[in-house]
């Protein structure tokens, strides 16, 4: 089944079906229509999977618009200021020696997109948009954990897109592993780093390049020189949206002991504003994806007294927005990515201590710094590393298509969003086109080197 889907996609790719720019634009438009037409069904699936009020797909629509407008501009020949010229090329050089040098982005072939469950639509469709725009065939494997979204995607995609070029394969570990035994031209994986290693290993057997969009513990440093009201509001939103199940949610807070209690109070007050006195009954507050993750989070919390929240209800997979203060660096809560609504606060003595703390650990996917002090911001940016960083807010670097999104080290490899997705799914072929004239110029490189060359 998996094998056949890959074979059919390869045949369709080799027949050249995915290459014409007009076809790519038409497919992207159709995909956009799917998202607009089926908004209601998508929202219901998200609600069933993760109790989410759907907003994220609007980002995907915007993202698709960007791609097809760009390709349309190319097709219509109004490419002024556009990224690609009329042949899909980036012109590099051209000179009087009848020589033309340019970079031609080419499709890679058949790519595999493996999505995660926490944003099941965005994490499959955003890479798919780039794969289509770049002229590839793509096999899409949504996460089995967000099962309603996965089966809806499988039902919808063939109604809007070429069925052979863009098949959806559903299933869990065994289906994904069967897919990974096939030969692809690129594998784009989103998920945890343990599976990321398996994906890289499987891809290495075919020398297939990979993009790994992984996770990790993203720190959030709050300087004492800051408007704490604003900082706490922004952090609270980013931590508890989607019930903390966001790869770039702030994982933990670092701050000096002198401001810790005010940070706690700021978050408590914001939670009240966002979700009311009982977050469990708020339509804006989510649930944990499944029982396994619920149990994992409850185990992480064992032995701590929550400063804010701490309540849970296993029957609904509900965990209240929870803050734990004075968490020791060696605590269990600080050993693995939390990926849920638990927010530990670790105190540091000053910015040096905070920088040291961050650099002692794996390179994070995101880093957040809240400060009004330019020197503090400058030092944090200069003396740490992370996949991306937002200063004085959280998550927002993800939303800019101009910025590449991805991890570094353990938090991932490769990048996407906007033009970066197109690049990730393209081979940048170096092209040099010469004329057969002006042969004299070439004589110098022909043997014999030490004899006078005969003129031809
Ligand atoms: P998941 O369980 O949905 O797994 C992701 C995909 O891997 C699924 O399609 C699944 O079928 C497949 N898979 C699972 N086990 C496998 C195995 N043994 N062999 C082959 N394939 C397998 O998602 P998850 O891993 O729980 O996702 C959460 C993680 O993903 C977090 O670490 C989070 O930070 C990260 N994440 C990263 C991004 C990003 O953009 N960087 C986005 C979302 C999530």
UniProtKB/TrEMBL annotation:
InterPro entries documented for this protein: Ald_DH/histidinol_DH, Ald_DH_C, Ald_DH_CS_CYS, Ald_DH_CS_GLU, Ald_DH_N, Aldehyde_DH_dom, Aldehyde_DH_NAD(P)
Keyword tags: Membrane, NAD, Oxidoreductase, Transmembrane, Transmembrane helix
Pfam short name (any one): Aldedh
One Gene Ontology cellular component: cytoplasm
Molecular function terms from GO: 3-chloroallyl aldehyde dehydrogenase activity; aldehyde dehydrogenase (NAD+) activity
Domain Aldehyde dehydrogenase span(s) in chain numbering: 3-428
UniProt xrefs under Gene3D superfamilies: Aldehyde Dehydrogenase, Chain A, domain 1 (3.40.605.10), Aldehyde Dehydrogenase, Chain A, domain 2 (3.40.309.10)
Signal peptide as annotated in the record: none
Active-site feature positions: 213, 247
Gene Ontology biological process: aldehyde metabolic process
Family: Belongs to the aldehyde dehydrogenase family.
Protein name per Swiss-Prot or TrEMBL: Aldehyde dehydrogenase
Species of provenance: Oncorhynchus kisutch
Lineage, highest ranks first: Eukaryota, Metazoa, Chordata, Craniata, Vertebrata
Gene this chain is encoded by: LOC109883854
